[in-house]
From TrEMBL:
InterPro entries xrefs: AAA+_ATPase, ABC_transporter-like_ATP-bd, ABC_transptr_urea_ATP-bd_UrtE, BCAA_Transport_ATP-bd_LivF, P-loop_NTPase
Biological processes per GO annotation: L-amino acid transport
Keywords assigned by UniProt, alphabetized: Amino-acid transport, ATP-binding, Nucleotide-binding, Transport
Record NCBIfam families: urea_trans_UrtE
UniProt-listed PROSITE patterns: ABC_TRANSPORTER_2
ABC transporter domain sequence ranges: 2-231
UniProt name for this protein: Urea ABC transporter ATP-binding subunit UrtE
Signal peptide: none
Amino acid sequence: MLSIQELEAGYGESMILRNVRMQVEPGQVVCLMGRNGVGKTTLMKTIMGLIKPRRGTITYNERELTHTSPDKRAKAGIGYVPQGRDIFPMLTVEENLLLGLEAGSVRRKGVPDSVYEMFPVLREMMRRKGGDLSGGQQQQLSIARALVAEPQLILLDEPMEGIQPSIVMEIEQVIESIKASKRMSVLLVEQSLTFATSIADYYYVLDKGTIVAEGSSSALSEEQVKKHLAV
Ligand SMILES: Nc1ncnc2c1ncn2[C@@H]1O[C@H](COP(=O)(O)OP(=O)(O)OP(=O)(O)O)[C@@H](O)[C@H]1O
């Protein structure tokens, strides 16, 4: 479904990603791991079209998207939840979610019930301002906002970062239920070995802008993680 070949991208003169190859198959949960600063966010942004690659191709559902705009990629069915929680603090939870509808290609008036079923707390807080939610709830809102557009592939950049363990579990459950629904693929940046081996199907390790290890998550050993991820 998503296929990346020989991708090179960066900022101005500085090339961050070199010769990146990656595949995400329909229904797969793929975990992208790597130390701080190796280029994980740069890769997610390049997939979403926020950074223009210098070389290589990005193909999605047999369509080449390498040079298309971020909104065309969103309309093609790619959802993106950036690192940090970029919700609109002055808008209500419901208004934040309705904005998510604009991104996709689905014509719908309201927030689908399935999204509130995944995040019951957002239904309870529908009329509250986004800025009044706790950090974990804002993270749930930012994932839910991407889901209302009903993407086929969702990119999640460190969704578990800096949130309390109980919310981490809720977000893991959401990812598990996305996986169980078999309607969406997930590509997420996550450092936890437990997550990578328990929920993800496949993993990639990025180091200095290139993929240095990959494989089925069930075969991911602590030794490999230590080798590639220890600081
Ligand atoms: N806007 C930018 N302009 C120039 N350099 C940047 C910019 N954003 C990131 N970089 C550099 O690109 C490199 C890769 O950063 P990136 O954020 O992709 O890494 P990361 O693996 O996601 O790290 P982290 O886990 O800390 O988020 C870093 O050296 C960073 O300093």
